[in-house]
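> example.struct
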């Protein structure tokens, strides 16, 4: 299983790729993709690291699992391909975007334009079997992505981490809050959003205000 990432990540992740656990993980993933339909496509498993170079990472959004439906997962958390119906969580993200920064509801569900501006859209688990949520959890992906979060925390400054929902909030222990900002809220899934834990968090405008206060360009959400 080939690891395709932007070259800027290599100095920070090369040692990770040479560990026994990561080699075992890649062997498991290769076997799964041979035997089963899995998502995202193999060439896009590391899309988050291709689209968002290390040094340009200004914001990190943490998801849990890729979408497991046909033609949805594209290697960026919460994102889907162009011309693909928006899953419920993404619809709620876009509704909050509308009310927060008065941006019209987007037609495209692809968040690639966020990634290219320095938003790392990182799922904790980067692969999944078709129609089997959480099927690739606890196979080593979480070790890898936790180490990615810790590396960003250690090697970068002034990154804004958006932790949505209980799972993502647990990652706060990996982040140095003396150097970085953490914004938390409920998850954008209907279950959480309909209970009032998502809408009104204003994370998009808050993130841009923080970035601008540090001298960075805001994200064109």
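> example.seq
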């Amino acid at each position: 299983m080939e690891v395709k990432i932007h070259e800027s990540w290599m100095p920070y992740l090369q040692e990770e790729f040479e560990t026994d656990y990561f080699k075992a993980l890649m062997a498991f993933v290769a076997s799964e993709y041979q035997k089963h339909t899995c998502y995202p496509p193999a060439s896009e498993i590391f899309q988050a690291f291709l689209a968002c170079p290390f040094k340009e990472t200004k914001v990190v959004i943490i998801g849990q699992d890729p979408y497991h439906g046909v033609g949805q997962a594209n290697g960026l958390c919460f994102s889907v391909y162009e011309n693909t119906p928006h899953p419920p969580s993404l619809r709620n993200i876009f509704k909050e975007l509308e009310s927060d920064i008065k941006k019209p509801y987007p037609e495209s569900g692809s968040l690639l334009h966020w990634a290219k501006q320095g938003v790392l859209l990182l799922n904790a688990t980067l692969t999944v079997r078709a129609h089997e949520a959480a099927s690739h959890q606890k196979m080593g992906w979480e070790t890898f992505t936790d180490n990615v979060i810790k590396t960003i925390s250690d090697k970068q400054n002034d990154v804004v981490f958006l932790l949505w929902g209980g799972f993502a909030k647990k990652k706060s222990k990996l982040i140095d809050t003396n150097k970085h900002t953490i914004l938390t809220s409920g998850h954008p899934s209907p279950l959480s959003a309909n209970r009032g834990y998502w809408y009104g968090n204003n994370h998009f405008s808050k993130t841009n205000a923080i970035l601008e206060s540090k001298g960075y360009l805001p994200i064109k959400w």
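> remarks
The chain has a mean pLDDT of 97.
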